[in-house]
């Protein structure tokens, strides 16, 4: 298992190195103010520096639908280009966390030149030892095993937080969208609400137990009592938004649509051919 993991990480690392060589060849790095000049493929704490190209950055931030209301955090921010683009082109407040202090200084200088010093903040930090829970959008260009290491932290964030990874996936947490820009893969996820368990669900004249099973954003389940368990169909969890349908004891389709807020779900239930009514559900203690 460990060998398999090392081999996969090695392949990804080689791909990153190959891309570094491709970026460096035939590319004249812009001369920047200050004495420090980074080199493609230079050592980093857990992963080398290879910058994301502008068209890929634009697609990453568009996939996340970044607006001026967002707080964008780039984990392993290199020369700060994703952070700077989020502030300059999308009006977001943007942070870059980078282990290499020279890159942090370079990022600050480039943000100044881009006129977004006030909207950006760069910190010398180890991303595995840093709180980034203030983010509404998290971006990264790391390595597959580093993404997997970040996964529990990301899944613990507020439902609906948008996560974008240049090139690499997140193990068995499948992306909600995959895009491609000139051969560069971009993965997008919405942090799903945590809904696994039993819920007491009520609407006028009806009380059910709703049981939800969850694997990341994939949900399934059933409702009871009834003639045994009545399975859910078309169950979809999108961040904190949940919807599912159920055929009730009379054979009528009930369509539920609601928002998850911690241990409560509230929303509307529409019986086939009928009018919507409000429903609420409360999570049972486990
Ligand atoms: C592949 S580069 C991506 C840079 C930037 N995000 C981009 O897309 O242009 C990865 C960056 O992560 C930094 N890094 C590696 N390990 C880190 C860690 N544990 N904490 C913070 N930064 C790290 C490296 O120094 C490098 O600048």
Summarize model confidence as the mean pLDDT: 92
| Unique bound compounds | S-adenosylmethionine
Gyration radius, rounded: 23 Å
Tell me the major beta sheet. Answer: 8 strands, antiparallel, barrel
- The percent of residues in helical segments reads 10-25%
Total separate domains: 2
Describe the structure.
With 286 residues, the protein is α+β, with helices and mostly antiparallel strands. The protein folds into two domains: 2-190, Vaccinia Virus protein VP39 (Rossmann fold), CATH 3.40.50.150; 197-283, Calycin beta-barrel core domain (Lipocalin). Helices cover 24% and strands 35% of the residues. The protein contains five helices and 15 strands. The chain has helices at 2-24, 54-63, 81-90, 101-113, 144-155, and strands at 71-75, 93-98, 120-124, 137-140, 162-166, 177-181, 184-190, 197-203, 206-215, 218-224, 230-238, 241-247, 253-261, 264-271, 277-283. Strands 8-9-10-11-12-13-14-15 form an eight-stranded antiparallel β-barrel. Strand 4 (137-140), helix 5 and strand 5 form a beta-alpha-beta unit. The two termini are 33 Å apart. The relative contact order is 0.10. Bound molecules: S-adenosylmethionine (SAM). The site of S-adenosylmethionine has 24 residues, from helix 3 and strand 2.
